[in-house]
Amino acid sequence: MTITEKPAPVVPPEDNAGRRAWTALRAVPPIWVVLLVVIVVLTWRNPVFIEPDSFVNFLRRSAPLAILAAGQVYVIISGEFDLSVGALVTAVVVVAARLSDGEAANTWWLILLLLAGGVLVGLVNGLVTTRLRVPSFIATLGMLLVLNGAVFLWSGGAPRGSLADNFRQLGRRGIEGLPGLNILPYALLILVVVGVGLWLLLRHSRFGYQVYAAGGNQRAAALSGVDVRRVRTAAFVISALCAVVAGILLGGATGVTAEAGVGYEFQAIAAVVLGGAVLGGGRGSVGTAIAGALTLQALFSLLNQFGLAQSLRQVVQGVIIIGAAAYAARRMRRSG
Length: 336
Prior knowledge:
ABC transporter involved in vitamin B12 uptake, BtuC
């Protein structure tokens, strides 16, 4: 008696295509879906939002926060926090106005000086955290207070001086005469350059792998030869440099004010967490952090569209941080 095996059922091609499409869709980070939904709602409320010039202007306004988030994600992936970036943004604007005093000839050496100051702030944050073993939350909170106090002493409570036109054009102007656009903002171009550079550094370099290792398991990273203290200090320097760039763009866009960076430290953390980074380290990416910043900015625009009070931003940020952190923790438990 011969036993014949039943032939395996043939899966229709459309089923395979649907399964591949579903698998590809599941691989997309949730933040991009959230961003798309918010943009759709914004467009429904205000169809002008999706027009090229209007949307590019939205990206220009979002660039400082997106750059801050791209730097902050390095610190968070490495297992630390940086609460000093908002105060550093304010310091950049106030110091630039005082030293520039409206003179275009001062702009380029001033930008180099501001970047050097950012490196110094990042080094202090990193060394205090890693060498003196002060928790980064306390160390950077202390730096926030130091910078705010220094700005107050420097300005006497009222910033003096002005920013030169060629300094301000980085945050306000752009390339004109492009087909379909009135202007392509310099701020957007700077965001692309910074974002791509930091993404390549994090995902395609030995240093990037070390950042993930330092945040994922400090002891295992050290045993495998990673200098955790050096890596975390470098992450703080990157975050501070991004804060300087964000401050330059904000100064150009909004002018001189002693409150230029107020609240930006929490917005940057909210954007990074919203992008899927895990508080405690080991997970996150530059791309999703930038998407988180864009989503946060779009949510604020949506609140304005609905005529809700400006004070609700803090409520939204708090809910986002708690909700996103809870979601990330739940996902880690399920995957573990």
